[in-house]
Amino acid sequence: MIQTLEWTDQGIRFLDQTKLPTVETYVTCTTYQQVAEVIRNMVVRGAPAIGVAAAMGIALGANNSRAETVADLKQDFDQICRVMGETRPTAVNLFWAIRRMQEKFVTLCIRPIPQIKQALIEESRRMHAEDIAANQAMGRHGATLMPATGGVLTHCNAGALATAGYGTALGVIRAALEQGKRLHVYADETRPFLQGSRLTAWELMKDGIPTTVISDNMAGSMMRQGKINAIVVGADRVAANGDVANKIGTYTVAILAKEHGIPFYVAAPISTVDLDMHDGSGIPIEQRSRKEVTHIAGRQMVPDGVEVENPAFDVTPARLVTAIITERGIAKAPYEESLKRLAEEHTPVSR
Ligand code: MRU
Prior knowledge:
Structural class: alpha/beta
Bound molecules: 5-S-methyl-1-O-phosphono-5-thio-D-ribulose
Oligomer: single chain
Distance between the termini: 14 Å
Order of helices and strands: EEEHHHHHEHEHEHEEEHEEHEEEEEH
Low-confidence stretches: none
Helix content: 40-55%
Shape: globular
Mean pLDDT: 97
Radius of gyration: 20 Å
Strand content: 15-25%
Number of strands: 16
């Protein structure tokens, strides 16, 4: 399995996603500030991977702390959590992971410092393992929704590279193929950062999964030609009413799917569901640098001085979402009820 990120004795090792698909190279972070930087720079990206990276970054920062009392360690810990929380605003998994590490710290504060540090490392590694198990469970549920044969379109990268492993949307596709379904993946290139053409195509090719890359503006035409039988994407945040924030362009794909009568599925772990967010209108949308739009592979593509927008995500209204696939089962409308029911369930997920 692709190792997106991993705790090692030397530090946290990340597969550098900014260099893919041509160069496979790794970055090892030895401080929490470096981890925050690789999240911001998208060396590691994708909501669940951001969550696990932040948890490991917090454990790393706490482990490096020179505090001699638990109170001082707590001060350092709070500062580390603040820095992590300022990296990327849309993926709710980041805040979910920070909260989980904070809750863990509370249960540990009567212990000696070395034990606290060790337990935080173990908690972050547990989150890594749990994410893979959740994706495999999501895959099993979602595979039942995939056609026996045909084309499946995905947008951005919601694969092994966006998670601790296996993937959410691509996990569903992997599981369907493992069950003997015959799928061909259409990967939107996903301007401006090209997660589809660079990352989705890279990891699917590595697994020998039949894949065609299309530029984003080809999706409608492919649907009209009958080449797409289902769509499956990931999510950065799912509001309580089922509105879905995901990579910019997802909304356009959902509208096209509706027009062509194609099912539009979202695969996301329960950690991506934000029951405190009533609907998608309140989800903070990250604005990224204009250079991601103005330049491709370092070459300027627009005239000097032109205005540019670069919202990294959009919100797809729940009415366009056929079903939301989680590790605990499949949610259908009305999402207020189905998501709440799944989120409040506490069944452990096994591999
Ligand atoms: O900006 P990115 O690359 O972090 O955006 C990633 C996505 O939009 C993914 O679809 C989402 O995080 C789900 S990943 C399983």
